[in-house]
């Protein structure tokens, strides 16, 4: 049987993941602990990247890039007229689409809960008892139990 | 099916496409092949996701990602709301064990999509879904009627396989406030 090649999580995906552990008010952005990462070339699609810019949390993306040491020439802020700024879009593309986290953890900034990334798939499943009711919970005291299975 | 979505409605190319309950990733991979900017598949099942990855390698897809998540937990997708242009999905049909699952998926999909949701549903549930769509103030249309030959997959299935009729439905949003009015007057 063929060995499954390594896959990864893109920072585009990371930009929209939150910790939704019961009691956590602000589970965003998730810190990234990397055990293995890689840069893989992906076709540049300026139209798609332009479309995504307004939907992203740029600050979270920039910080993620910093923590992975892949900032390069990424602009710390979204520039004006970004649709026509190819250099800006190319850098955004590189960071969003080409940086791959293969193995590691996503860490909730509030509770410290770790979500494992294996083969590039973040596992956001919660254990029984961690699942909150619909809507953000009001309990302010974040427990410090790092419930890694 | 995806080809129709792209050529008739232009909802795939250069778009961010989500696939809820992606299973083995067939729709995700198809969307990626048709030129989606990126496709993100969501599923709860680790084994299914592993197959998705293998399939992705097979087709040399670079612009797709997968997440293991429980879509029935509404809190798990809060940050994704309206981030996708298009959602495509083949939700679990309501069976004895997970009744109403298809509607939970549909509701989630409508929260995540900005433009449209494409979903497969049993034709026998069409009226029910039509009522729901009205209630949620979304537009529903039938894009295609399909026939599936489903092999028995659960122990409680008595027949070896069943031939079922399935609709490919397209859901879109009314963009102005009074748009729903004509729909509800009946």
UniProtKB/TrEMBL annotation, chain A:
Region ranges (Disordered): 126-149
Cytoplasm is among the record's keywords: yes
InterPro entries given in the database record: Trm112, Trm112-like
GO cellular component, one term: nucleoplasm
Coiled coil: none
Leader sequence residues: none
Localization: Cytoplasm, Perinuclear region; Nucleus, Nucleoplasm
Listed Pfam families: Trm112p
Gene Ontology process terms (BP): rRNA (guanine-N7)-methylation; tRNA methylation
Keyword terms, alphabetized: Cytoplasm, Methyltransferase, Nucleus, Transferase
Molecular-function GO term, any one: protein heterodimerization activity
Superkingdom of origin organism: Eukaryota
Sequence similarity: Belongs to the TRM112 family.
Protein name: Multifunctional methyltransferase subunit TRM112-like protein
Organism encoding this protein: Holothuria leucospilota (Black long sea cucumber)
Automatic annotation (TrEMBL), chain B:
Listed PANTHER family: RRNA N6-ADENOSINE-METHYLTRANSFERASE METTL5
Protein name: Methyltransferase-like protein 5
Keyword Methyltransferase attached: yes
Assigned keywords, A-Z: Methyltransferase, Transferase
UniProt GO molecular function: nucleic acid binding; rRNA (adenine-N6-)-methyltransferase activity
Limits of the Methyltransferase small domain: 14-109
Keyword Cell membrane among UniProt keywords: no
Family as reported in the entry's similarity comment: Belongs to the methyltransferase superfamily. PrmA family.
Transmembrane regions: none
Domain of life: Eukaryota
